[in-house]
Amino acid sequence: MRVELLCTGDELVTGLITDTNSPWFEAQLFQLGVKVDRTLLVGDVRPDITQALLEVASRADVVLVSGGLGPTLDDFTLECAAAAAGVPLVEDPQVLQWLKERYAQRNVPLNPGAFRMARVPQGAEVVRNPLGSAPMVILRLGRARLFFVPGVPREYRALAEGEVLPRIRALLGSDPERVYRAFRLLRTVGIPESQLDATVAPLVPQHPRVVFGFRTHAPENHLKLMATAPTQAEADAALAAAEAASRQLLGTAVFSADDEEYASVLAKLLTRAGATLATAESCTGGLIAQQLTAVSGASTFFIGGAVSYAEKMKVAWAGVPSEVLARHTAVSRETASAMAEGVRAVCGTTYGLSVTGYAGPTGGTSEDPVGTVYCALAAEGAPTRSERFSLMGDRDRVRLFAATSALEMLRQRLLAGPSVP
């Protein structure tokens, strides 16, 4: 089954709003084993919408069309649909009754614009909108079934979940050529996309039913595995084999799968270990603490953090000896270590994590240019570990990767277990 999406509206092609409906629907559809073949955005231009409808209908079995069903003059998607189908617009008495009931419930009089929403292409099927006024309209155009829904996200999702997806599921059940898919997203950090590609490349010929793909979502790089087979059991088995082989090659660079976020993974590791954490941040300005406290229940493992930007605050809040700053400067391996040790001692935690560096665009020295970051991890009963990182990019990117570099030191320590110093 070939499925395409057509989204209409000037606001989508002028940057006024972002299309959030399509990614959501694509994810819902993929759970049925169907991959959307194409998503098309078209502005509020009648000939463009009419032509787009004819094009998608010539290629697809199912098309979800969103936007342009409301009561205003720029809502003319159904006019274009009627033109594409070569039929007139007619006032549907059932839709008109729905509109009267809805407006009466809201104690609002019907206005001329409301009647526009009752005009649908002749021969189309209408479905009541549970959350709004404009109905869903279903129209056959050539080989394709076109589902027209409002672009308002809450109405879009209600109709997609309650009406469109069940119909697609029924069509799939009667499709003799149906293929089954299984998908896994392996999320990694600390490994560049090109290296990720090279590492798993030997697996591609060994797993012919699986497509290996890649996605960068800084600071992460993702490996996409999609298996296709005549039955769901075969697709699941092919995916499981490819995933196991990929995990074996990538090792601890894989921190989670699918929707599980990095901070949630760390939270589970800390909780499982019964460990607590305190942070001392300079160039990241509290970004580490922000990521960790975004996890519900973070108070069980995150005791507190200090954003010690100025040197005097590194002394006062993170317990850095003033002689360390005088001898080694604020951006150094020694200062990072002292920050981690000091904040751990002050907060009485299992671990202390610190970061200091030059995020840019100003600052830096010949020995430590902009992008140089020092991270340190102090652990109860173990030597403090400190590392130097050379990060590329603008200020925001350096800060983001600095926070991840520090957190990755902690994750790897937790994975290694309590016996590792």
Plain-language structure description:
The protein is an alpha/beta fold and 421 residues long. It folds into three domains: 3-173, Molybdenum Cofactor Biosythetic Enzyme, Chain A; 180-257, Alpha-Beta Plaits (2-Layer Sandwich), CATH 3.30.70.2860; 262-416, CinA-like (Maf protein), CATH 3.90.950. It has helices spanning 10-13, 21-30, 46-59, 77-85, 93-105, 112-116, 153-173, 193-200, 232-250, 262-273, 287-293, 311-316, 322-328, 333-347, 395-416, and strands at 3-8, 36-42, 62-66, 89-91, 119-121, 125-127, 136-141, 144-149, 180-189, 210-217, 220-229, 254-257, 277-281, 302-307, 351-357, 372-379, 382-390. The strands form four sheets. Strands 2-1-3-8-7-6 form a six-stranded mixed sheet, sandwiched between helices. Strands 14-13-15-16-17 form a five-stranded mixed sheet, with helices on both faces. α10 (262-273) runs parallel beside α15. It is elongated, with a radius of gyration of 28 Å. It starts with a strand and ends in a 5-residue tail after the last helix.
What characteristics describe this protein?
3 domains; elongated; Molybdenum Cofactor Biosythetic Enzyme, Chain A; Maf protein; 41% helix; 6-stranded mixed β-sheet; 17 strands; alpha/beta; Alpha-Beta Plaits
Q: Give the name of the CATH superfamily of the largest domain.
A: MoaB/Mog-like domain
Mean of residue pLDDT? 95
Which structural class is indicated by helix and strand composition? alpha/beta
Alpha-carbon distance between the two ends: 55 Å
Q: What is the number of E strands?
A: 17
Number of domains: 3
Our estimate of the beta-strand percent is 25-35%
Largest sheet: 6 strands, mixed
Helicity, in percent?
40-55%
Instruction: Write the CATH architecture name of the largest domain.
Output: 3-Layer(aba) Sandwich
Low-confidence stretches: none
Radius of gyration: 28 Å
